[in-house]
């Protein structure tokens, strides 16, 4: 029988908290101690980005361990705790061509990080930081060798700053989170019906009249582009056109396909306002505006949206319809294709490749455009077959409040890609998690992105065969804590919101309820009530986590003693919670959920009693429980009780089914 | 019997969460609803500070309620939810002469805040924000009338940025916290043996060689002074001399009373290095340096420290002793008085009044100096009797980790002031809570200041007869939550530190233990081990709260069922916690405490059994429990188990004592 110390060593040598999982990992013997003698040495190629990254590494390690660490570099690599070695300068700005590979070797004597370019170093530094944990002796990193590189070169996160404005600080901390998960594209959805969120020097009425004063200045964008580049992250700007564009028309109604005036849209959905693609003035403004943006954003791609054009303004405008006929275009779809060709030429002139949603995919467009698919892998595979590059966002919509495991199983290269050649497959560049902002505010957005976006990040970085949800969830818990140190608020905001709801810090019973609730899924929130940009997002549905860990753990329980403990807690919780619910108008709507959770707890306990005694429940008992389960699975207050299915199982098992 | 709604209304009409308690408060009928129609109107005198304060009010109300609120001012005061009326411009910069009074009237129709100057408005805005709470109907503020003004004009918080460096962000968020509690002086302890924390243009070797690169730039100081002024807070800079000064000598050894070289001091205590007050070069540098600082800090006072001069360097220097004889000075104390007279003249030349610790009090100095007393009320009263102004810090040292109630009962005007005339009493201007930074880092400092400093703030603002600790603790809980919205980390940092210790987010058992622990008191930490500036402050003693709410609540419990619940939790907690303790080197030292808490829980339960059965425990049982209690009250890992006394009571009660 091994000594306890050895046991720990052995268990550590097969388990790690890394996310995304590296391409290749081999554990060695022993551990490297990280103490206050920690020193970094830089070797090989050096530049400002590497030096800044090394300083951030030290600052973060200090924060993460609570140990003051020396900030100066160790000149002698043989004496450093961690040597960072870079072969050569990489791309001047973050690019799709970046080599992100790295090798990390940790021995009990030293750690060494090697990469061809500084981008790989940035990735490897994140891996190193995730390795450092307290053990019975010290903070340590396990001895190991990692050879790592991403499966896909395009691993993005879209943040919609148009529907709900997200100030600079939100983006900065999310860039830090992205870097920690090795995501490399921040896709900024900058304009939409509900807001024009960027300053234009050439056409100031766009942001002045289309944003309620909530937009990024050119200076802020410069800062953001640099902040991202320091972390090896590209910024992809999106300017939606020809639809999703109402906010442009507040200051420039002459661009629309129907007479104004226009106002900023306050609700959600697909609206009629659409650019007039038949007037040369439209292209003159786009040429000026996109030229300005092309200089501000160094990325080779510029995203023009292009989705959900309903064509109503076009159909209703006889001059436009005449244009369609004159130019022999195939209806409104043909008109949009015409518009995109013109747009593509403008972008090309300004040195940019065009990216857009599925709808832009049209054989008239050159092969260097990029299609972002919200429709799915089939659409993506078809584009790739025809020679177009693409990325997947279908299945990665964080706003639909699906479990991490659901996103995790969506692969850009699934069976739809089976028939593609290797070259065609290589056109499928990756994917992007999308945080559409209808139902998130700066206060709640982190909790809707993290930690679930980490599951997408792993899907896009790690080998295809890395797909065990149990392992993913275990590591997700660790990475979620890790993100706390970067100032993300996905965990720290939770008690604040619950305390606001309760008006007290005595929130344990509210936490017990909230822990088994999830917001309704898909587009159900929009159907539940009329939301606008001004609707407060301060209710329990905004506070609860997108995914209930407690419900998942309960579903997986085999041990009936533990089940009883949970069920008893829930049965007794309403009595504890009721005094908090009634005095708060924000919690009033939650009362039926709390009552039902108590009833579910009781039902589960009774079912367990039947199962253990071998007795058979009466029909009336069974009817009552089924009615309860039926009611309890309905959404109320836009919330779902996530333990209904496992309790239903218990009840039906007791019924002898 | 009243309807439930009425009951709530009645109870609200006698209870509030305001802190500090206003001088005069009368509740009215009903409530003002705060919804998204909330608008502020400005009336009377207006200036930039008032407008900025109104914008901050709206932003904070948005944050606190989670409701987007309109940011534009309402031009018509009769239509506004809150009208802010200012009579006239106040002092150009925050000053001891500021009129801080205000009147706040809330009716179900409108709230109106009136103040003679903008400083009073700032105080009243904080009161208004504390009033807004969710009830069963909406966010509301209760109808009431408040006439408020401070008892003392000087209500400060000292933060020592020398021993542990505190970056700008720490000070900004603490200024926000101070403003929320109506504190009005941030005393910055900028230099000490362990660091020279401010940039000097005239003598750059001071900060360059004395700070490890950790100092405020002149630009940052300008920002901080403005940030504080916006909130009606003075900044009082302190430059310790002639002792506590080693860091100056690293770059300027010629100023010392013994030959160098000198290094930045890394440990704590009273050290020998001392300015040479006999050389004219000393005064030339002080004139230049203090002249520079006098321009940077607009406050009329400048603090020169002056405490804990041990005189060893002076006594050992024959040239200095000759000077003492030649000038007929009374030993080293006389030499320090000579130095202070010279210093006072320099300060006067630069338009500043001198402030210093008790030791500067000397009849040779003019009456406009200010004495800050760490010695106590007697010393303060004596100075006042002789015509000197003073403030109290004795009893307000937050680093000694006393309970809020201890600070709360310390009054600058206690029995020692009883014999003073009214005019003499008026020279006792207030007090300052002191956060000396030997054992705090930027990560932990907020949790050592807040919420306990709020008890000092109330003592200094509210009428003397406001002194019920139970009411104070109830409101302290509310104000502590309120401070969360300002970004203070006294609550949010707690789970992060516990998770770091445990290496997991499953920290409930660790929380249960931590909840009944407190750090050792007074100067015991320094005796427990050798601390330096580099010692990590990441152990359980750094994470636990200075004051255990759980222990206080348990001590006050009358209900034995609740007692049993607590005792059972503690008895069973070690079994749950042990798996977390062993694998973490940071928690290893905590094992004996966890074991003893379990034994204490068992002892308490057994004692309760005896008490309830009427049986008498055996002598051996009693001996065993007394030995346990003896051991458990000893500090271990620099921590105290705070439930020992109430459990001892139970055991002795069972023994029939």
Radius of gyration of chain A: 27 Å
Most extensive chain-chain interface: A-B, 44 and 44 residues
Low-confidence region ranges of chain A: 1-13
In which range does the helix fraction of chain A lie? 40-55%
What distance lies between the first and last C-alpha atoms of chain A, to the nearest angstrom?
Answer: 45 Å
Shape of chain A: globular
Q: How many strands in all of chain A? A: 18
Give a brief description.
Two copies of one chain form a homodimer. Chain A has 26 helices and 18 strands. The first copy, chain A, is an alpha/beta fold.
Can you describe this structure?
Two copies of one chain form a homodimer. With 657 residues, the first copy, chain A, is α/β, with parallel strands linked by helices. Helix content of chain A is 43%, strand content 15%. Chain A has 26 helices and 18 strands. In chain A, the strands form three sheets. In chain A, strands 8, 9, 10, 11, 12, 13, 14, 15 and 16 form a nine-stranded mixed beta sheet that branches. In chain A, strands 1, 2, 3, 4, 5, 6 and 7 form a seven-stranded mixed beta sheet that branches. In chain A, strands 17-18 form a two-stranded antiparallel sheet. The longest helix of chain A is centred in the last third of the chain and has 23 residues, at 591-613. Chain A is globular. Chain A binds chain B through residues 4, 8, 36, 63-68, 133-138, 441, 443, 477, 480-481, 484-485, 491-492, 495-497, 499-501, 503, 505, 533-534, 536-538, 542, 582-586, 588, and chain B through 4, 8, 36, 63-68, 133-138, 441, 443, 477, 480-481, 484-485, 491-492, 495-497, 499-501, 503, 505, 533-534, 536-538, 542, 582-586, 588.
């Amino acid at each position: 029988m091994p000594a306890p110390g050895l046991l720990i060593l052995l268990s550590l040598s097969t388990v790690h908290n890394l996310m995304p999982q590296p391409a290749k990992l081999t554990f060695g013997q022993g551990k490297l101690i990280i103490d206050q003698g920690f020193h970094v040495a830089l070797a090989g190629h050096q530049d400002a980005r590497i030096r800044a990254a090394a300083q951030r590494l030290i600052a973060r390690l200090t924060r993460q361990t609570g140990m003051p660490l020396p900030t100066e570099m160790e000149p002698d690599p043989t004496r450093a705790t961690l040597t960072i070695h870079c072969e050569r300068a990489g791309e001047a700005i973050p690019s799709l061509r970046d080599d992100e590979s790295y090798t990390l070797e940790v021995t009990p004597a030293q750690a060494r990080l090697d990469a061809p370019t500084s981008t790989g170093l940035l990735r490897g530094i994140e891996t190193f930081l995730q390795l450092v944990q307290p053990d019975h002796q010290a903070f340590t990193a396990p001895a190991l060798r990692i050879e790592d590189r991403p499966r896909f070169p395009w691993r993005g996160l879209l943040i919609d700053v148009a529907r709900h404005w997200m100030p600079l600080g939100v983006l900065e901390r999310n860039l830090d989170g992205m870097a920690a998960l090795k995501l490399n594209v921040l896709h900024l959805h900058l304009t939409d019906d509900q807001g024009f969120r960027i300053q234009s020097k050439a056409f100031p009425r766009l942001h002045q009249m289309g944003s309620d004063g909530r937009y990024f200045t050119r200076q802020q964008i410069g800062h953001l582009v640099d902040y991202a580049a320091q972390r090896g992250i590209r910024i992809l700007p999106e300017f939606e056109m020809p639809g999703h564009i109402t906010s442009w028309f507040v200051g420039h109604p002459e661009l629309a396909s129907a007479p104004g005036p226009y106002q900023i849209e306050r609700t959600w959905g697909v609206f009629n306002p659409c650019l007039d693609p038949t007037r040369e003035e439209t292209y003159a403004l786009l040429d000026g505006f996109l030229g300005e943006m092309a200089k501000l954003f160094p990325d080779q791609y510029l995203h023009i949206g292009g989705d959900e054009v309903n064509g109503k303004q076009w159909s209703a405008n006889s001059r436009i319809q005449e244009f369609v006929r004159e130019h022999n275009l195939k209806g409104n779809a043909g008109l949009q294709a015409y518009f995109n060709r013109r747009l593509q030429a403008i972008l090309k002139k300004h040195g940019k490749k065009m990216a857009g949603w599925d709808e832009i995919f049209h054989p008239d467009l050159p092969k260097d455009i990029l299609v972002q698919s919200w429709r799915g892998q089939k659409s993506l595979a078809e584009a790739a077959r025809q020679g177009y590059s693409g990325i997947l966002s279908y299945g990665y919509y964080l706003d639909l409040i699906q479990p991490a495991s659901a996103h995790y199983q969506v692969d850009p290269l699934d069976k739809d890609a089976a028939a593609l050649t290797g070259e065609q497959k290589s056109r499928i560049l990756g994917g992007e998690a999308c945080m559409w902002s209808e139902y998130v505010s700066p206060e709640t957005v982190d909790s809707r992105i993290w930690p679930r976006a980490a599951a997408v990040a792993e899907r896009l970085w790690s080998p295809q065969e890395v797909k065990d949800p149990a392992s993913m969830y275990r590591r997700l818990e660790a990475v979620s804590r890790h993100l706390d140190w970067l100032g993300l608020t996905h965990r720290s905001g939770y008690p604040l919101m619950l305390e606001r709801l309760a008006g007290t810090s005595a929130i344990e019973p509210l936490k017990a309820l909230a822990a088994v609730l999830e917001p309704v899924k898909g587009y159900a929130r929009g159907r539940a009530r009329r939301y606008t940009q001004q609707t407060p997002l301060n209710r329990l549905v905004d506070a609860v986590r997108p995914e209930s860990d407690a419900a998942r753990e309960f579903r997986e329980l085999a041990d009936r003693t533990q089940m009883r403990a949970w069920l008893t807690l829930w049965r007794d919780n309403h009595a504890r919670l009721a005094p908090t619910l009634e005095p708060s108008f924000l919690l009033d709507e939650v009362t039926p959920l709390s009552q039902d959770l108590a009833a579910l707890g009781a039902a589960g306990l009774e079912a367990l009693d039947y199962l253990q005694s071998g007795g058979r429940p009466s029909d009336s008992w069974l009817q009552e429980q089924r009615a309860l389960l039926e009611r309890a699975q309905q959404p109320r207050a836009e919330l779902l009780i996530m333990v209904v299915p496992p309790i239903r199982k218990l009840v039906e098992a007791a019924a002898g089914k």
